[in-house]
Write a structure and sequence with these properties.
The complex is a heterodimer. Chain A has six helices and no strands. Chain A is mostly helical. Chain A is elongated and about 45 Å long. The longest helix of chain A is centred in the C-terminal third of the chain and has 30 residues. By secondary structure, chain B is α/β, with parallel strands linked by helices. In chain B, helix 2 packs parallel to helix 3 and helix 7 crosses helix 8. Chain B is elongated and about 85 Å long. The two termini of chain B are about 60 Å apart. Classes of the chains: A mainly alpha, B alpha/beta.
């Protein structure tokens, strides 16, 4: 398996890992998802502004924040995308920031419906 | 046990908070390095800390460095949380003063195990501090009476004399000796002798203010230092201290026993700046005079009277005081 395939074999959302981390506490899990639903779009928006304005310091800091948030949640692939963006910002590779941000957004787009579906299911 | 969490990212912070709360910790959560440092520097603040590496205001390693400059407070065990993986960064983190590091996202089991290591270290530190305090007490206190020992009371006296000279105040030095103490030991035994010394130590301590001090100077000799003592009140206060011994009998294992003490009293303001040994020699002479005057009384050390005497007429230090 080459590196690219390996990355894509990772789940969008590693729910079992997260459940273990919260010790199967559904109340806490929902609380974390609520924090995510509020903080993720907001931070992503600020990150977009930073990338557009080529503000490397802010884009490095904000992608780091997203990486932490996503990895705590078990959103492995999106966390990887945020990590890449952080590294590119730190390295000053301005030209690559746009595509890296797109990749992160697309990971976010596949993640959010999974979270919504889960929340809808547990609230039923 | 209190634990500090510092992470600027809300989701990770909440997850950590809940995990540690469940593990029985009293959690304090903050979202930047500056607040973390404030918490860690508070008296009775947390001694275990999980610090995110990258934070606004102050990053994790900077918090560690700042905490390590404190010397007054007990040791804090700090764990850096990092998503960084390189060896160079691990070294940098540990060199900043962190005790350990954990990579994010953490595993709950590993986190708890590493914190238990921290608790072990803190417990060890507490035991060492306690042992050191015990040693310090033993080195400065008399084992029988728990009063300051001779060395400690002399050190305090020197400091007090400097202070009163600087502030142009007066320190009163009282040297007291139990009258006919040998008789107690000879007729009632050393156990009763020890009981009496303990009782006297307690009475002397009770008869002075909290900022005065009392020490066991020798076998049955006690040194009382009244700091910032108005010279006109000194004889009266010394009298009260003398009466605290003679006014009522002491309860011993062989029945009640009434004892008295004789005192030499010296006011530092009347002697200018002189070496402590010289002052103690003078107060010793005054004590000798009290003994000679029939005991159970006090005599003031008088600098003026001394000037008229030739050195050959001064009482010698060698004498009996039964």
């Amino acid at each position: 398996m080459n590196k690219k395939e390996e990355e894509f074999s990772e789940p969008v959302w590693n729910l079992p890992e997260l459940l273990e981390r919260v010790d199967n506490d559904q109340v806490l899990l929902r609380e974390l998802l609520d924090i995510f639903k509020e903080d993720f779009p907001q931070t992503l928006r600020s990150l977009k502004t930073a990338v557009t304005g080529e503000d490397l310091k802010s884009s490095s800091r904000l992608s780091h924040t997203l990486k932490g948030m996503l990895s705590s949640l078990g959103a492995v692939r999106a966390a990887g995308a945020a990590s890449k963006l952080e590294a590119l910002s730190a390295a000053g590779e301005t030209a690559s920031l746009g595509p890296a941000l797109k990749a992160l957004e697309s990971e976010g787009e596949s993640l959010v419906p999974e979270l919504d579906a889960y929340m809808a299911e547990v609230r039923r | 046990m209190k634990i500090l969490i510092a992470d600027d990212e809300a989701l990770s912070r909440r997850l950590l908070e809940k995990t540690l709360d469940r593990a029985g910790y009293e959690v304090i959560a903050v979202d930047n390095g500056k607040q973390a440092l404030e918490q860690l520097c508070k008296p009775n603040g947390p001694r275990l800390a999980l610090l995110d590496w990258i934070m606004p205001e102050m990053d994790g390693p900077a918090v560690c460095r700042a905490v390590r400059t404190r010397t007054e407070q007990p040791y804090a065990y700090m764990v850096l949380l990092t998503s960084k993986g390189s060896k160079e960064e691990t070294v940098l983190g540990l060199e900043s003063g962190a005790d350990d590091y954990l990579t994010k996202p953490f595993n709950a089991e590993e986190l708890r195990a590493r914190l238990r290591v921290g608790e072990r270290i803190l417990l060890l530190e507490d035991r060492l501090v306690e042992a050191r305090e015990n040693m310090r007490f033993r080195a400065t206190h008399d084992q029988l009476t728990s009063l300051l020992n001779r060395g400690a009371v002399m050190d305090l006296l020197v400091r007090e004399l400097h202070r009163s000279h600087r502030e142009q105040k007066s320190t009163a030095i009282l040297l007291g000796d139990v009258d006919h103490f040998k008789r107690v030991n000879d007729t009632m035994g050393h156990v009763v002798g020890d009981e009496v010394l303990v009782e006297i130590a307690g009475r002397l301590l009770k008869s002075v203010r909290s900022y005065d001090f009392v020490g066991r100077y020798g076998g049955e000799e006690f040194l009382v230092v009244l700091s910032n003592c108005n010279p006109s009140y000194a004889p009266g206060r010394a009298e009260e201290i003398r009466k605290s011994i003679s006014s009522r009998p002491m309860q011993t294992s062989k029945g009640p026993l009434t004892l008295t003490m004789s005192f030499g009293v010296l006011l530092s303001s009347e002697w200018g700046q002189r070496p402590v040994e010289e002052l103690l020699h003078e107060v010793d002479i005054a004590l000798y005079e009290a003994k000679a005057a029939g005991r159970n009384c006090l005599r003031m050390a008088q600098p003026a009277a001394k000037l008229e005497l030739s050195p050959a007429l001064l009482p010698q230090a060698v004498r009996r005081r039964q």
